[in-house]
Amino acid sequence: MNLACKIIASICFSQEIEMNRADLAYGTGPVVSSLDKVLSTFHVQRQAYHGKSFVGNHVHRCCTVEVIEALTAAPMKVMLENMTDDVPLAAHEQLLRESANIKKKYSDIFLKFADVHHGINHARAISPEEINQIDICIKEFLNSFRASFPSSNISPSLHLLEDHAVEQLRKFRVGFSLLNEQGGELIHTDFNRTGRVVHGMRDPLQRLMAVMRRHLVGTTPEVQTNIAKTSRKHEY
Questions:
Q1: Is the pLDDT of residue 218 over 50?
Q2: Which residues contact 38 (CB under 8 A, 6 or more apart)?
Q3: What are the pLDDT digits (tens) for 191-200?
Q4: Phi/psi of residue 174, each to 5°?
Q5: Angle, helix 221-235 to helix 204-219, in steps of 10 degrees
Q6: Under a CB-based contact definition with an 8 Å cutoff, are residues 74 and 35 in contact?
Q7: What Cα–Cα distance (Å) separates residue 3 from each residue in 8, 9, 11, 13, 158?
Q8: Nearest-angstrom CA–CA distance, 158 and 162
Q9: Measured between alpha carbons, how far is residue 162 from residues 65, 98, 141, 166, 170 in Å?
Q10: Per residue in 26-74, pLDDT tens?
Q11: Alpha carbons 157 and 152: distance in angstroms, whole number
């Protein structure tokens, strides 16, 4: 009978907790809402569709120390702003530790991802030394990811990054921006910039050839090397 009373009392207590607990839909809590506010201060907006993902320019903007610090500090800030006197001291200390752990874990991962992002997502030529450094950054990022999320699976994108990205960089010796949609937009911008420089040429074919020649020289490492060697010969 005593055991039954304890079970009933436990059930009633659990039901009371559930009744007093605020039901929040996924992604609608105060911390998540604060993250969107932080992003808006840096003029970054997640897309309404495609899983609330970011456009390429906004990813580049988020991969800065200033934005990463603001995002990872948001949980602690929200917790302190919403703390009330009826919260027990033990719970208060636990919340402080949890928010500090969140900041530490995600700061480490975001900063290492930012190193990878800045190393590969551009349209310029890459030297062998830079590729070796990018390889180190990718390994450090994946090591931190596995340590922080041991039960998470490696997605196809992370697999490509870990096992195939460096191989492709060594083969083509140029950033990945030439191989995706954002890279196409970047090239389009570069073409427009070059077109404004050569707009004084009367012959449209000469203008086009000048734009394409400059693009080839700027994106092909072998061409840049040959030009540098020729220039040194002329100096003598």
A1: yes
A2: 67, 70, 71, 74
A3: 888 888 888 8
A4: -150, 150
A5: 100
A6: yes
A7: 9, 10, 12, 15, 52
A8: 6
A9: 23, 30, 9, 8, 14
A10: 666 777 778 888 888 888 877 655 556 676 678 888 889 999 999 888 8
A11: 14
Cβ-contact 70, 94 below 8 angstroms: no
- The residue written with tokens 């596995």 in the block is 146
Name the nearest CA neighbour of 208 among 227, 194, 190, 218.
194
Residues recorded for the chain = 236
> Which of 218-224's residues contact partners 24+ apart within 8 Å by CB, and which partners?
218/124, 218/125, 218/190, 219/123, 219/124, 219/125, 219/174, 219/178, 220/125, 220/174, 221/125, 221/126, 221/173, 221/174, 224/125
Angle CA 219–226–228, to nearest 5:
90
CB atoms near residue 49 (< 10 Å): 7
pTM above 0.85, yes or no: no
Share of the chain above pLDDT 70, in %: 74
Token reading at 68: 């990463």
CB 154 within 8 A of CB 138: no
